[in-house]
Every structure is written in C-alpha cells, then in structure tokens.
Write a structure and sequence with these properties.
Layout lengths: L2 H14 L4 H19 L8 H12 L4 H12 L10 E8 L5 E8 L2 H14 L3 E2 L9 E10 L3 H13 L4 E5 L2 E6 L1 H13 L6 E8 L3 E2 L2 H15 L4 E6 L1 E2 L2 H9 L2
Parallel strand pairs: 8-10
Antiparallel strand pairs: 1-2, 1-3, 2-9, 4-6, 4-7, 5-6
Helix pairs in contact: 2-3, 2-4
C-alpha cells in the first residue's frame, strides 16, 4: 500500500473523530444529495451509491433525522426545497510537485475558486489548468478492511479476487481492495455475505503513478491537503504524493 493510500486511511480515521461536526455533517449530507442526483433516486436498496453515502454518514454518527432530511432535499419531497450544486474539479500541485485533484460542489463558483486558490498559494502550492493532473487518476471502487494479520488478509484477498476485484494491497494490518466502479457493489455484497467488517467502501480517484516526497515537502503537502479539505465547498481531495512513513506517523500523532 503506497504512502498515498496510507494518507487516505489516516484521513478516514481522523474524519471519524472530527470535532467539527457541523462541517463534517454538511459534507456527508452533500454526499447523500449527490448520490440521489447521480445514482437514480432516494431508495438505497435501488441506489448503491446512496447506500454507500448513508453507511458513511452513519459511521460518522450523523443523526438519522439528518440523513432523511438530506434525501428529501435531494428528491424535493415533503416540502423540502430541492438542493442544486455545481460540480467543479480543481487541479494543481503541492510543494514538491505532488499532484492534487479536488472535487468541489458549490452554489458560488467565484467564492470557491478564490478559496481554493488562496489555500494553494498560502503553502507554496500552485493551482493548475484543467487537465494538468487528472490524466494521472482513474476512478476505482475501493474497499478497506482492517484485517490485523496477514493470514486473514490472504483469505479476504482470495475472496475479493473471486468476486472480480482488480487488485488487492496489504500493509500494516490494512487490506485495500480495488475494482472497477461497476464491480464495487458485487464485491461489497460478497464481503457482507461473509460477515466481513468493512472499514470503508467508496468510489475514489486512484493515482496511476505516485511521486515520493521528502520530509519537508510531505509536511507542507499534508498541511495543504488539510487546509483544502477544511473548505466547505471541497468535498474530496486526492493526491499522488507518497509520504515517508515517519512523517505520516507524526501527522497522525499530532491529531
């Protein structure tokens, strides 16, 4: 598992313990709204992307009332005004040259662009042109399981490959299962049928190649990613930066 993947795992753990519940719940609600908009309706049994968004919201202790209200906002039911967002992709580079790709949803394009540009400039990154880094990312289904030991990881890896996963990676007690987006639901169902405790399941943008950063550039890039993810309109941040293990350990301990 690359440094990039380790960063993603740490971000999930930090998100689950995020004290800024208001901001976190707002982003989780947007995930639900977008899942309804793009996934074909407000029934999680018929809309797998919505099921993933609801599972993520529940794992972060989002109240059921908030979840129901978000679905109603997305469908326009029950007198809730239908919520409309514009999706914008921002691309750029962090200190040391790591590619950064942002998925933003906003009702004010100018505000979001200004906030994103300011965050990049503050820490020595640079906002780039459309297409400058997106070529290096591909959409993948990603399932993460904390297996603990390698024997369990081997067992689950075989299970995943039989369910048509593209690849599996194991390191430090964490197994990552990669698939095409279309195969994610089937693999998730196999995990459920075998009572596997899945840490996360999502459609993500995975870098095709990574770039190793030194300690200083890593610290700066991690700070930049934190600042970008704190922006209300930024829904998800992706990078191809590969961070040294010791820097990631310090980063995690600092939280």
């Amino acid at each position: 598992m690359s440094g990039h993947s380790k960063w993603s795992t740490i971000k999930r753990a930090k998100g689950a313990a995020d004290a800024k519940r208001g901001a976190l719940f707002t982003k989780l609600a947007r995930d639900i709204v977008l899942a309804v908009r793009d996934g074909g309706g407000g029934d999680p049994d018929m809309n797998f992307r919505l099921r993933l968004a609801i599972d993520k919201a529940k794992s972060n202790n989002m109240p059921q009332d908030n979840i129901v209200r978000s679905i109603k906002r997305a469908t326009g039911e029950g007198g809730e005004g239908k919520e409309e967002f514009e999706e914008i992709i921002y691309e750029g580079y962090g200190p040391g040259g790591g590619a950064i790709l942002l998925q933003a949803f906003t009702t004010n394009r100018n505000r979001t662009a200004s906030d994103v540009r300011s965050a990049f400039n503050k820490i020595g990154g640079s906002l780039g042109e459309s297409g400058c880094v997106s070529w290096n990312f591909e959409k993948k289904g990603v399932i993460t399981v904390e297996t603990g030991d390698s024997d369990k990881a081997d067992e689950l890896s075989l299970l995943a490959i039989e369910a048509e996963a593209d690849d599996v990676k194991y390191e430090d007690g964490v197994l990552e299962i990669f698939s095409t987006p279309e195969k994610l639901q089937g693999i998730q169902e196999v995990m459920d049928q075998n009572s596997v405790d899945v840490s996360s399941s999502d459609i993500s943008l995975v870098p095709k190649t990574t770039i190793a950063l030194d300690a200083k550039s890593s610290e700066q890039t991690l700070r930049l990613l934190d600042n970008l993810e704190e922006l209300m309109d930024v829904q998800k941040a992706y990078t191809n930066a590969d961070f040294p293990p010791e820097v990631l350990e310090q980063y995690q301990a600092a939280e």
